[in-house]
Amino acid sequence: MRKFVLIWVSIGLCMSVCAQPGKKTRRTASNTKEAVTERQISSRFNTGLRAYYTAQYEEALQAFSSILSDAPKHAPSYFMLARVYGGRQQYTEAESALKQAVKLDKNNIWYQVALAESYVTTENYKSALPMWEKICKQMPHNPDCLTSLAVCYEKTGASDKAAVVRAQLSQLSQNKKDTQDSPQKPASASASSDHKTLGLGSLESKQYEQAVQHLELALREDDTDYDLWSAFATAVAQSGQWTKLTDKEEDLTTLFPQSATLLCALATAFLHTGNPEKAVEYFKQARAFSFDSAQIQEIKKGLFEAYTALGDTENADRYR
């Protein structure tokens, strides 16, 4: 069963969105008070991340708490604060921090997932149940979410509803098996390795269409490899085969729900394929997890382009 993968990355992806024409004089982004504050928060947040991933929980706690003292509406810091508390097995504090993250960013489904998982951890199935019901409506084919929903139904005595969800899971499993048994699947793991090597080589030599072809085949064997996805997204962007990425929307967002780089890539792909609504959705999700100033500017440009395409001049002007 596919696990939620929470990966924080700072790897740059060479994907550009056409810059919007300037229609009025603006202050430069490098010297505004807002930009300075943003850079400071970004630096402190990255310090907290490094501390968290090296299990220096006290240092991480201080970093995220410090950010929230100056920017009390910084939802990502509440989210990471919850992870720090979880690492220290302070589940009550973790739950409280997650509630704040959800409150501040109501549309971020991954904050909701984390809070629902927190409720399950503390065996608060009554609170977890309505959250998993809502989440599964948005991600009806995600096996991890459906499994959690089934458990909550079982724990709250709704065995009939649990059986329905278990049946859905069984069907998803069968569909996945049928896909894996498809004759298009590479014959062996070594074949996958060959495709990855060929794909990365093609990407390096700027043979982008060949790179897309080989990397797509490699992903059929191992779709949990972040570097493979990153290379695939770059090859797609360079070759203009945007639908190759949008077709993998569910896989990508399930595996890497908090990778600002891949979410931004997906948003750009939807923008180029005439789906600005989806582009706005994923640019906003990417923004929630982006702490690199250059990447944030790219996201803002993307939001400007997407809102402009939607004819929403009011929101477009916010990102001008």
User: How many domains, in number, for the residues?
Assistant: 3
User: Got a strand count?
Assistant: 0
Any guess at the CATH architecture of the largest domain? Alpha Horseshoe
Shape: globular
Low-confidence stretches: 1-36, 183-192
Report the order of strands and helices.
Answer: HHHHHHHHHHHHHHHHH
Alpha-carbon distance between the termini? 43 Å
Strand content: under 5%
CATH topology of the largest domain: Serine Threonine Protein Phosphatase 5, Tetratricopeptide repeat
Report the C-alpha radius of gyration, rounded: 21 Å
Fourth CATH level, the homologous superfamily of the largest domain? Tetratricopeptide repeat domain
Average predicted local confidence, pLDDT: 81
Under CATH at level 1, the class of the largest domain stands as Mainly Alpha
Number of helices: 17
Structural write-up:
The protein is mainly α and 320 residues long. It folds into three domains: 31-106, Serine Threonine Protein Phosphatase 5, Tetratricopeptide repeat (Alpha Horseshoe), CATH 1.25.40.10; 123-182, Serine Threonine Protein Phosphatase 5, Tetratricopeptide repeat, CATH 1.25.40; 189-318, Alpha Horseshoe (Serine Threonine Protein Phosphatase 5, Tetratricopeptide repeat). Helices cover 72% and strands 0% of the residues. It has 17 helices and no strands. The protein has helices spanning 33-53, 57-70, 75-87, 91-104, 109-121, 125-138, 143-155, 159-180, 189-204, 208-221, 226-239, 243-246, 249-255, 260-272, 276-288, 293-310, 313-318.
